[in-house]
Specification:
9 helices, about 220 residues, 3-stranded antiparallel sheet, mainly alpha, globular, 3 strands, Rhomboid-like fold
Length: about 220
């Protein structure tokens, strides 16, 4: 299910969300196309700035969330950030949204490291931070609807799905896949960072309570 847009209006310019997307795209283009890096150099770049649990450097808890492994990884994350991030930034303000986003990313990375502390595989991507945004969206916009592109057998169709159903279904899939990976004897920590998604989502639901709505939107937000 691919989210296309939220039913909630955006009342202000969401500069931080757009800037985060731009930074992620620029860094991806730099590592893939603009830098004179060999394949080995790119791998070393990812190992240096991504999270490697068995050789952890604290700075990578931040830098890893601005690296992506491919176009699908990047575009998928940026789409989710655009759909869910703009309303949250509009509600709490750009500066607080940036702080919230980074805190969720660090929390998500920490959970992933705790879940697989001896993995030699680098963990990269913004999905943990974005999962935090999604968790916060569930708390703050429980009556929202998500315009969604759904694959039905061999063709796509657009449907409107209540945000709680969409987000809880997404979280349930991360939860099941995460704990299924624990039982996989051959699992080495590669692939999708399920526990980063789980940790980020829960962190977002909890941390958003520390970031109240902006004063000028409180009357609108508190209306029944």
């Amino acid at each position: 299910m691919i989210p296309l847009r939220s039913s909630e209006r955006v009342y202000s310019r969401t500069v931080v969300t757009g800037t985060l997307i731009a930074i992620n795209v620029v860094i991806f283009l730099y590592t893939r196309y603009l830098a004179t890096l060999s394949y080995d150099a790119v791998n070393q770049f990812v190992k240096s700035w991504g999270i490697v649990p068995d050789d952890l450097h604290l700075i990578t808890l931040l830098t890893s969330m601005f690296l992506h492994g491919g176009w699908l990884h990047l575009l998928g994350n940026m789409l989710f950030l655009w759909v869910f991030g703009r309303n949250l930034e509009d509600l709490i303000g750009g500066t607080r949204f940036l702080i919230f986003y980074l805190l969720c990313g660090v929390a998500a990375a920490g959970v992933q490291v705790l879940a697989n502390p001896h993995s030699p595989v680098p963990t990269i991507g913004a999905s943990g931070a974005i999962a935090g945004v999604m968790g916060a969206y569930l708390v703050k916009f429980p009556r929202s609807q998500i315009d969604t592109l759904v694959l039905l057998i061999i063709f796509f169709t657009r449907v409107t799905i209540p945000a709680p159903f969409y987000l809880l279904l997404w979280f349930g899939m991360q939860f099941l896949n995460g704990f299924e990976s624990i039982g996989d004897r051959n699992y080495t920590g590669g692939g999708v960072a399920w526990f980063a998604h789980i940790g980020g989502f829960i962190a977002g639901m909890l941390l958003i309570r520390l970031f109240p709505a902006r004063q000028r939107w409180r009357h609108w937000y508190d209306e029944p």
